[in-house]
User: Fold this.
Amino acid sequence: MKFPGIAAVLILCLALVACDENVVYKAHEDIDDGLWYIKNRPTFKVEITDTTQTYNLYYLLRNTLQYPYYNLYMTRNFVGPDQKVISNTLEEVYLSNEVTGKPYGHGLGDLFDHKIPFLKNYRFPRSGTYTITLSQSMRQNPLPFVMSVGVSVEKVPVK
Assistant:
């Protein structure tokens, strides 16, 4: 085969097209110039119809190898369809090993993607649109080398 790059691109395209039937919602917001300002609060609206189902909810984060910290403090504001706050939580997530600096997640070049659970086996109390807003809560503003932030909501498979 003379064009090994074409095969790799085709495989990548197929992987992206194939979707997991358990994923109910998945979205991310790119961070302009990789500089996440405190005032930049990506918001995700998740439509839930099945309240009998349990779900796992994940943060989707992408950072570069140059990200200066091993962790990231984020505030998650979680609002129900009735516009009442379900939770407003400050969380610490780990992007690399504190001692070795080895990045967690999956990397390609100097980009690393992280899928970090924040609610497991969660049952939404009612159907409707839930809003999840994320903000960075680090001492540095803007926070450099954060390329995108997102949320994934997935059905817990029945065993």
Observations:
- Confidence is low (pLDDT under 50) at residues 6-17.
- The two ends are 43 Å apart (CA to CA).
- Residues 22-155 form a domain with the Jelly Rolls fold (CATH 2.60.120.380).
